[in-house]
Amino acid sequence: MAVQTVASTSTPTVDLGPAAALSCRECGHRVPLGPVFACEECFGPLEIAYDFSAYDTEELRRRIEAGPANIWRYAPLLPVPADVADKPNINPGWTKLVKADNLARELGVTGGLFVKDDSGNPTHSFKDRVVAQALEAARAFGFTTLSCSSTGNLAGAVGAAAARAGFRSCVFIPHDLEQGKVVMAAVYGGELVGIEGNYDDVNRFCSELIGDPAGEGWGFVNVNLRPYYAEGSKTLAYEICEQLGWRLPDQIVIPIASGSQLTKIDKGLQELIKLGLVEDRPYKIFGAQAEGCSPVSTAFKAGHDVVRPQKPNTIAKSLAIGNPADGPYVLDIARRTGGAVEDVTDEQVVDAIKLLARTEGIFAETAGGVTVGVTRKLIENGVLDPSLTTVVLNTGDGLKTLDAVAGTGLTATIRPTLDSFREAGLA
Amino acid sequence: MAVQTVASTSTPTVDLGPAAALSCRECGHRVPLGPVFACEECFGPLEIAYDFSAYDTEELRRRIEAGPANIWRYAPLLPVPADVADKPNINPGWTKLVKADNLARELGVTGGLFVKDDSGNPTHSFKDRVVAQALEAARAFGFTTLSCSSTGNLAGAVGAAAARAGFRSCVFIPHDLEQGKVVMAAVYGGELVGIEGNYDDVNRFCSELIGDPAGEGWGFVNVNLRPYYAEGSKTLAYEICEQLGWRLPDQIVIPIASGSQLTKIDKGLQELIKLGLVEDRPYKIFGAQAEGCSPVSTAFKAGHDVVRPQKPNTIAKSLAIGNPADGPYVLDIARRTGGAVEDVTDEQVVDAIKLLARTEGIFAETAGGVTVGVTRKLIENGVLDPSLTTVVLNTGDGLKTLDAVAGTGLTATIRPTLDSFREAGLA
Fold it and tell me: PANTHER family annotated for this entry (chains A, B) (predicted)?
């Protein structure tokens, strides 16, 4: 992948609120805010460095609580301008934190079990949170096209956000994607380009396009806008704590695809502690994968610091990243906080989707089946403490992965008569 | 359909908050609160009569504004106990009122155009609002099974609400429903019974079951619990006005299936006026149907007071009620407020779904295509005034009616090379 340096593209006057610079996660080298994602010194990932020094804790808390019922209530902590809520965007976030007492009973959790249900976002996945940040960065850098490669949730999130914000969008997908997924991405009216090849070919092509003059003015949300995009996951941490009454959960179970979401939730929790918005006390972070794509879980169990790539083979397609960029950071965080990384089989994923639907009326996508299934497994194995407050993430919507539960069907078939009804034992 | 009288089933001590009695919409005859839906005197429809006499306007407003971000903020105006928010339910409502400036520009609306987007509800349709009321009535009357007949949104809403509340659920559907719709209803783990017959057979069977001892303890949300169920639609009126800053919209476009939703939104607006929560000024209510099921629109245009049944044939299946029970009341309201009832073709429905997605990033189900399409037609015909504040309802989610836009697809197919990209004119 071509690494862009900052010189040609940075805009010193860019207003992204408290975002002060980009900083390399590996070597700490700082560069001005710009559409770059890799360190020019060491090729490490760049992330946002903030200046929060002017904030008074209680004033900040009041400002957040008086804010809109979406992620922009946290604008003071995000790489966005202060007036972001007035700009046209799809306003994701502030999704329900559901107290899951029925599920808790089934799993034996006594300390309080909560499901953070991100299926309530506008396009019904957590991707709306991250795309919303990328969109603001694209505005700030003067981009006119919003783009990504995707086989699912991200395509819809980019299409919808671009439509509302008046951006051109261009989403790249493998040309032979299932018709249903094509429709979900195409309905927003942007360019939807099928690439003759597999998902790896699509990604390789996108990387070429970013390095080429043909890609000028294009913001690839999870490539050249990745440092901004990734920050959107912090809002999950903020919301969970605020919804718990400005309190850290004891344990949190997070799905792992690239691992970015988990690392940014940890970053968000650390920020809340440093800002004094929550009491500083221990929390444990658990990562969840599907067995058919479990490179981080495998490394965790083997005690490795390095993640060995896998070829994905699981129904949890939104998590099927065989070579997760943030895998090593996930291992660090799970170990530092006393958490763990675990995986479940596809069969356990399906069982967990049904369990969550049956107990709480929440229809999760496969990634939600992964986190609920891993939670169950961690409790059974004595790794997750059922006497502590536990939050489980559902990051998407079952309507998008209907195939996973296609075996679910009628419990009875009867003739339209009371006799037939009684015979079936339904009375 | 067997008409139950109140004597055997009423519970004089039932606590449903401000709900004081049931009152016949036709003859005004009052009976105590109970699981009945038709007047014993004249067979007219029963609806809830409230006692709001103790409310102070400003105190009520403060109480609402301090309430939860769901329909229970309006508990003082609904047939539910005061502590409803503490009971296990799926907490629908407080969905986004989206200021649709891009759509307004395309339609030539200058007075402010808003989309009330009920795809944000837990099971992604407005049915969650009405089922939530029926559930509280079922609790109050000691029912243990929540039931309905449905071919779509209602099945999911009942399944999810029952699961979370710890009720048994039993949903009746035609046995040959498409597999995708079966899965959406079955995933919540309740009984899902296929009836060998068409939807009319299913409904006839349900009516028999209600009159039979086998149906004891069963709450059919839209039959014996219908007076409570229907009130849920009032919350759309409350939310729209509160989200507009406690102001009535000038014009509102509402889809018509049975017509119940439209009549209850009007009831909700009238209540807000009487309670002093909004200024009393004129508003116009417009009804929207698909041409393939347009009995109310046909009657409106012909100047009739009576609605002649039709055999539905439209892609807008959630509105396909050929003999709408509340049709005459809808005609009354449209005429009294200076509104209208209009219909659009299936092709116009699809165009409107795409228009809304392309301009605002909102993917509506076919019912949303009907309201947006009708809005466009009413403006073109000079019936709807584009200089006035207008609210259009989207009552469901495009993910549930993907087939309607199945023609949407790739805008280009290319090889994974920059040359191929340039040749396709995408740069």
Answer: L-THREONINE DEHYDRATASE CATABOLIC TDCB, THREONINE DEHYDRATASE, MITOCHONDRIAL-RELATED
> What CA–CA distance (Å, rounded) separates B324 from A396?
36
Write out the DSSP string of B211-256.
TSGGGTTEEETTTTTHHHHHHTTHHHHHHHHHHTTS---SEEEEE-
Task: Using an 8 Å CB-CB cutoff, list chain A residues near B163.
Answer: 102, 357-361
| Model pLDDT for residues A146-158, shown as the tens digit of each residue | 999 997 899 999 9
| Average pLDDT value over all residues in chain B | 94
Residue A179 pLDDT level (bands cut at 50, 70, 90): confident
Residues pairing with B48 in the sheet = B22
Question: What does the block give as tokens for A231?
Answer: 């920050």
The pLDDT value recorded for residue A407 is: 87
The one-letter amino acid code at B304 reads H
Q: What percentage of chain A has pLDDT greater than the value 70?
A: 97
Domain range summary for chain B, segments of one domain joined by +: 97-124+233-405, 128-229
> Chain A: nearest CA to B316, how far in angstroms?
17
Q: Measured between CB atoms, which of B91, B183, B358 is closest to A189? A: B358
pLDDT digits (tens, 9 = 90+) for B82-115: 999 999 999 999 999 999 999 999 999 999 999 9
A127-229 is a CATH 3.30.10.10 domain: no
Residue A282: Cβ-neighbour burial (10 angstroms; 0-12, 13-18, 19+): exposed
Distance (Å) from the alpha carbon of A32 to chain B's nearest alpha carbon: 28
CATH class of the domain whose range is B128-229: alpha beta
- CB-CB contact of B150 with B159 (8 Å): no
Contact call for residues A172 and A205 (beta carbons, < 8 A): yes
Sheet bearing A113-117, strands edge to edge: A97-99, A113-117, A390-394, A251-255, A284-290, A340-344
Q: In this structure, which CATH number among 1.10.10.60, 3.40.190.10, 3.40.50.1100, 3.40.50.11540 belongs to the domain B97-124+233-405?
A: 3.40.50.1100
- Cβ contacts of B190 on chain A, cutoff 8 Å: 411
- Count chain A–chain B contacts defined by CB atoms under 8 A: 237
Which chain A residue's Cα is nearest to B144? A427
From chain A, the residues in CB contact with B201 under 8 A are 416
SS3 A180: helix
Give the range among A343-347, B2-6, B105-109 with minimum mean pLDDT: B2-6
Beta bridge partners of A97: A116
Provide the token pair at B67. 């309430």
Judged against a pLDDT cut of 60, whether residue A113 lies above it is answered with yes
